[in-house]
Design brief:
The protein is α+β, with helices and mostly antiparallel strands. Helices cover about 20% and strands about 30% of the residues. It has 13 helices and 38 strands. It has a nine-stranded mixed sheet, sandwiched between helices. A hairpin with a 5-residue loop joins strand 19 and strand 20. The longest helix is centred in the C-terminal third of the chain and has 19 residues.
């Protein structure tokens, strides 16, 4: 059984520019380090997402066709005989999977970043692509795929009520959709290997979830398991065993870090299988045939495996010894071959075919072969203490040649993750490599509210937007200064979604703390943010309110206004660059429009870059490259790092600059060059 269940959702949320500073590097070795071209880091990958079909006959991946990511397929024993199956001309395909009968590839795609995802299928033998969910203003989800039932899958559709996804059975041959269950207020459902719905999950008034058994199609009146807000980010079911007798869980109830548990479905008894007092169980290997939980992964400083089934012990040890950090991409139904992708800091990902019986690895492709031999930097896991005694797992990336600590303090970019209920991890990170190559120390901080380090650490962020969560970031900067890593006069703050909000908070709440900021799709007004979240976030809305404030009460609105950067926009005194997608359904364009308008009214310079064909982030490589070109020249002007000229990148993108082109070095000339 392969099941998708999401317990929550994430936001995945100046005065005149400072005069240009002379480039500061970590010494002669940095000066000799060549610039890595933006296109090599942010352009299309050559190939990515290697997947074996369940029957093992086929190998698929995504790769460019006419400059846009599409799905390719080849015989597993002859990858050189590849052919493209899809013909997307504008929007890249970023995720794909195999239908359980190995006859079709499935993928989802939206229009211009609106996140109204349609589910598509294309026969492995070729032929027209079929839109299985051709409904307007509808977001399709894959609810369950079975290895036993191969002619259909379960999909969720919110075309009846935009708040809730009704469950349908999709016949993969005919495309017929048959309603299985109307959803009148449930977060989601859990199916077994026969695609029978067995569990209904409903949000409760505490901001948590209630779990109900479904017997003969009827939802029980009383939940068999419940949790409140405290466990909402750290408790969720993984799936049933193939015989339906065991339900596996990641569970933090009655403890701090989430452990892996097996629930006897008949008795309800929970048995602890694995735990780690430092961090939550964050990943799992489930056998494709039996559904048995074979191993789990805990990620504190770096990912670590705990083996539960001896049958995979040698495999995990072999792959870890040969590849370092790796991620499982696919397994055949016979479980004789896997595809795995590496995820090590100083190299772009490579995908390998692993023959379990022969214990043999065969490289299939490098995701970005153009980075072979490039001066990539190491990512150092570090532990940073907050002023109130918490420990923040963080990651420091220094320019090549700087060593473990630079000889002299460097300009630094504080790179803040989105969410905020997510985390930074060890591994290859294109943006960190880009910034380090330009001469900056890069610090990524798992501030309170981040997930993965136990529920107490996550819940410590409740009510702390713009307060202690921001204090954690300032503590991290102080640490970098005291360690001799960062020059306190030359620290920028940058991030997307919540990281964009943190950037705006940094420039408004603490206007002297940072030299400049780069905000990508960040909310500026928390009142309007909560009033315009997508309707399908209805099940998550109570948790948002519980962790932030209630916009339907005067007290809540007062809190949201006070914690909104927009309220304090007149405090901004440092250069600010804003990037926004016009079709963003999470952080709408109005969030950027509002703060830009407020700064205009006060005569405060700001540069605003808008992409009319993007949503929550920039999926099209032309747009991502253009924004990074603007950003690196912007950062160079206020921090003194290196930069590749903007060149024709903006002309090649859809970028519009509604305001402030003159405040970003080289941007006005790039626009005039159109």
């Amino acid at each position: 059984m392969r099941t998708l269940h999401l317990a929550g959702a994430a936001l995945l949320l100046a005065a005149l520019p400072a005069p240009a500073l002379p480039a500061q590097t970590s010494g002669a070795r940095m000066a000799e380090t060549p610039l890595i071209e933006r296109s090599k880091l942010f352009g299309n990958p050559t190939r990515a997402q290697g997947r074996l079909s369940p029957d093992g006959r086929w190998l698929s991946w995504i790769a460019p066709a006419d400059g846009v990511l599409n799905v390719w397929v080849a015989p597993a024993d002859a990858p050189e005989r590849a052919r493209v199956l899809t013909a997307e001309k504008v929007r890249p395909i970023r995720q794909h999977s195999w239908a359980p009968d190995s006859a079709m590839i499935l993928y989802v795609n939206d229009t211009g970043g609106d996140e109204d995802f349609h589910l598509y299928g294309v026969p492995v033998t070729g032929g027209p692509v079929r839109d299985f969910t051709p409904f307007p203003k509808t977001r399709a989800t894959i609810e369950a795929v079975s290895d036993r039932v191969t002619d259909r899958i379960l999909v969720g559709l919110n075309n009846r009520d935009p708040r809730w996804h009704d469950v349908h059975s999709l016949d993969l041959k005919t495309g017929k959709l048959t309603l299985v269950r109307q959803n009148d207020g449930y977060t989601g459902f859990l199916a077994d290997e026969d695609l029978n719905l067995r569990v209904a999950i409903r949000p409760n008034r505490e901001g948590g979830q209630d779990y109900f058994r479904i017997v003969d199609g009827k939802v029980a009146d009383v939940p068999f398991l419940s949790h409140g807000l405290d466990d909402s980010q750290t408790t969720q079911p993984l799936g049933f065993s193939a015989d339906g007798g065991t339900l596996y869980w990641i569970d933090s109830r009655g403890r701090d870090t989430a452990g892996a548990f097996a629930m006897d479905w008949a008795t309800g008894k929970m048995t602890l299988l694995a735990e780690d007092r430092r961090a939550d169980v964050a990943g799992a290997l489930l056998h494709p045939g039996t559904g048995r939980l074979e191993a789990v992964q805990v990620d504190y400083l770096k990912p670590e495996w705990t083996v539960l089934d001896p049958a995979v012990k040698d495999d995990i040890a072999f792959l870890t010894e040969r590849l370092g950090n790796w991620v499982l991409g696919s397994r055949t139904q016979a479980d004789d071959r896997w595809t795995v992708a590496t995820d090590n800091a100083r190299e772009a990902s490579a995908t390998w075919l692993y023959d379990r019986r022969a214990k043999r690895l065969t490289k299939l492709f490098d995701t970005r072969p153009e980075l072979a031999g490039a001066p990539l930097a190491e990512m150092q896991p570090v532990e940073i203490a907050t002023r109130d005694g918490k420990t923040m797992v963080s990651y420091l990336t220094l320019p090549v040649g700087a060593g473990a600590r630079p000889a002299a303090p460097l300009p630094m970019v504080l790179l803040v993750h989105g969410g905020p209920w997510s985390r930074d991890t060890y591994g290859f990170d294109g943006l960190s490599q880009f910034l380090a190559n330009r001469g900056y120390a890069v610090l990524q901080v798992n501030f309170r509210g981040s997930t993965g380090f136990g529920k107490a650490f996550t819940n410590a962020g409740n009510g702390e937007w713009g307060a202690k969560m921001h204090g954690d970031l300032l503590d991290a900067v102080d640490w970098a200064v005291k360690q001799g890593v960062a020059d306190p006069r030359r620290v920028a703050i940058m991030g997307g979604s919540y990281g964009g909000y943190a950037t705006l908070v940094g420039l408004t709440f603490t206007p002297d703390a940072f030299a400049c900021g780069v905000d990508i799709v960040g909310p500026s007004n928390l009142v309007t943010l909560l009033s315009t979240v997508p309707p399908y976030w209805e099940s998550f809305r109570k948790q948002l309110i519980a962790r932030m404030a209630d916009p339907d009460t005067e007290e809540g609105r007062a809190w949201l206004r006070e914690r909104s950067p927009l309220t304090h926009a007149d405090r901004i005194s440092k250069p600010l660059l804003i990037g926004q997608g016009a079709n963003d359904p999470r952080v709408k364009q109005a969030e950027s429009d509002q703060i830009v308008a407020a700064m205009q009214a006060k005569g405060i310079p700001v540069t605003y870059v808008l992409f009319p064909d993007e949503g929550h982030g920039f999926a099209r490589p032309e747009n991502n490259i253009a924004f990074m070109a603007i950003a690196e020249n912007f950062l160079a002007s206020c921090l003194g790092g290196r930069a590749e000229p903007i060149g024709g990148t903006v002309r090649a993108s859809s970028a519009k600059v509604p305001h402030g082109a003159e405040f970003a070095p080289g941007l006005k000339a790039a626009l005039d060059g159109r």
